[in-house]
Specification:
disordered N terminus, 445 residues, seven-stranded mixed sheet, 11 helices, elongated, alpha+beta, 35% strand
């Protein structure tokens, strides 16, 4: 990720309207081995001040036990401050200046490079500007954005804002009520946050995976179409699904005799069992569920078992992520070998709308080389702020040929009660009929 352009001051706002300019830099997934080296941190911060063309007045750094460093470089224009959590590979930096000519961009670029931060986040805003009066006399409430998203209420920065995504044309953010739990596992940073509107949310490496209020939309759409399309699913394999909600949806079917859930991250599963009860709803205690902690790729290539339905519920990743190997043709080929006759594979297919669909198309293209029937379907997930895609693949089952009456009969026969997402109680919501614009983008006939 490259550092976005950080202007010295907001071009549209005269300098005299603000007292100072601030850049908050969150450096996630830092790869430098010097995070607990106070001498290195001091030198790095002084160099950041130099590159910002600041006048250094003083500096003070302190190392905590057993680990962690805080420090500040006092400059004639104000300060550069830092606090480091080595155990989380994270550094929080604050650059404040009362001189709009300070080169914040140079400082941010240097710190991102020095800390080898794989996921830097930047928030930039003007401090001390008087808020404009509201036309109706009430305090103004607005969201404004610069090159790196800035969030204000009454023009004051809000510490309780969680930014899921920000970009040149928009962003996606939440108000945090509380941080429930945080754990740095060997594979990722796992956080459970309490959002004001969506309840608890699971966040992995800074990306929302699911939220309490609408997780059922994602998990039901992922699981139920394939389970209902299969005439008698008895054995199901889940790759990923650490929250336990995917297993919960599978276990609703009385035909199920065995579910094997393979997840790489034991600490994430433990975190979910403890804090995400409304996701798994006791699924981990169901004797039909077996949890296997290992790499999904290794499991698939080593087992000789076959399954009626295989569900891939893993994080988005084509580059440098723990799930990268699970988005390859070799992995899909291994999954196909593990399907029993008449089996169905379903894969979470990432964002799929007119703004972002390339990842979905890549997943689908890999499956089309291997299976006779490959179908995309989508549903909107509010906490994601986007339409999400899924891909179902099989050599024997084409879900487009299933009638409403057939699926109604399956649902009634298995006494299922889907909550909302793929069945509205009267008719199906067109999961296998993509909107015309998406069909055109992906070349579907």
């Amino acid at each position: 990720m490259t550092v976005r352009e950080i202007e010295a001051a907001e071009p549209s706002v005269p300098d005299h309207l603000g007292i100072g300019w601030q850049c908050v830099i969150d450096l996630h997934r830092c790869a430098t081995p010097h995070l607990d080296d106070i001498g290195w941190v001091r030198t790095t911060m002084l160099e950041a001040a130099r590159r910002a063309e600041a006048t250094v007045v003083n500096e003070q750094f302190h190392r905590f036990e057993p680990h962690g460093i805080s420090g500040v470089v006092v400059i004639g224009e104000s300060h550069l401050a830092i606090h480091i959590w080595p155990e989380r590979a994270f550094a929080a930096v604050d650059v404040f200046t009362c001189n709009s000519g300070l080169n914040m961009r140079a400082a941010a670029e240097w710190l991102t490079e020095a800390f080898a931060a794989a996921d830097p986040r930047f928030v930039y805003f003007i401090r001390g500007r008087q808020p404009a009066p509201s036309p109706c006399g009430a305090p103004p409430e607005c969201v404004q954005a610069t090159d790196a998203a800035t969030l204000h209420r009454g023009e004051e920065p809000r510490d309780e804002i969680y930014i899921d995504e920000d970009g040149e044309i928009g962003g996606h953010w939440f108000v945090i009520d509380a941080a429930v739990a945080t754990r740095q596992t060997p594979y990722q940073t796992a956080e459970i946050l309490q959002f004001a509107h969506y309840g608890r949310a699971l966040v992995l490496d800074g990306k929302v995976q699911s939220a309490e209020r609408d997780e059922y939309i994602y998990h039901e759409a992922l699981v139920q179409p394939a389970l209902c399309a299969h005439f008698a699913p008895r054995r199901v394999l889940i790759i990923g699904g650490g929250e336990g909600a995917t297993a919960r949806e599978v276990l609703k079917h009385p035909t199920i005799e065995e579910v094997v859930m393979v997840d790489l991250d034991n600490q994430l599963v433990a975190l979910a069992r403890e804090h995400l009860h409304s996701w798994h709803r006791g699924a981990f205690n169901d004797p039909r569920l077996e949890v296997v902690i290992c790499d999904g790729y290794e499991f698939v290539t080593s087992t000789t078992e076959r399954y009626n339905v295989i569900i891939v519920d893993i994080v988005d990743s084509f580059e440098d992520g723990p799930a990268e190997a699970l988005y390859t043709k070799d992995f899909y080929s291994g999954l196909k070998e593990r399907l029993a006759p008449g089996g169905i594979l379903v894969v979470q297919g990432m964002e799929c709308d007119t703004n972002e669909w390339q990842g979905h198309l890549r997943v689908r293209a890999g499956l089309e080389e291997l299976f006779g029937y490959v179908r995309s379907y989508v549903t909107f997930i509010p906490s994601f702020g986007s339409t999400w895609g899924f891909v179902m693949a099989s050599d024997h089952v084409d879900p487009c040929t299933l009638s409403t009456e057939q699926i109604d009969h399956t649902i009634a026969g298995r006494r299922l009660e889907p909550k909302l997402s793929f069945y509205d109680g009267k008719t199906h919501v067109g999961l296998f009929a993509l909107p015309k614009d998406l069909r055109a983008l992906m070349g579907e006939r």
